[in-house]
Amino acid sequence: MSAELFSVFYQFADVFAFLILSAAGLAIVFGMMGVINMAHGEFIMCGAYVTVGLVKLGVPLALAQGLAAVTAGLIGVAVEYLIVRRLYKRPLDSLLATWGLSLIVTQSMLLIVGSSITGIGTPEGSFAIGGYTFSTYRLVLFACAVAVLIGLYITFMKTRFGVIARATMQNAAMAKALGARTGRIYAISFGIGAGLAGLCGALYAPTMTLIRWAQRLWWKVSSPSWSAAPMSCSAPRRPP
Q1: What are phi and psi for residue 178, nearest 5 degrees?
Q2: pTM above 0.70, yes or no
């Protein structure tokens, strides 16, 4: 009975980790700026590709994942400054602009990287309970998701930046009149959202095979809790 219960918890933790890590950044961008970032999946893709590239260059996996998240965050700040900042009060225009950016990045990666790239493999380590065998790395992903939630709560609820960010979200004009640098707050928030997306891609890069098919990026997820299924990077969703 204990093995079956742990199996249920393990599958819940697996799905919970992916949903939190993939959606946290998107929620921050939409909640802070009201921008539906259609290029969110490309930031996830950035984290995955940077991680794979750095690991193949000999960088340790954990360091590569951290650098991938930072890279995605910095790119997010640049995107906010160059594109999104001019479209805050034009939600449909911002949606179309980020969608166009998504298409450009997707096709550019197809031309630059090619139709496929060899993965780096899931880190070794597993344990058995009863007649079931579980991957240790999947529990690491769950722990990372919980850490992300705790970190976001502390950042936005217990820090000076969080107070200013919430004030900007509620009334940007009043916050600016009181001295808040709303442009910087928006840029940092967008960077955090992009960085979290990159972190998601970086953490899941070892568990995925990156494949181009029909000019779209698809991820095949190798999971013990479900059969391999394609997942669109430009629109992250739960595998069936």
Answers
A1: -90, 5
A2: yes
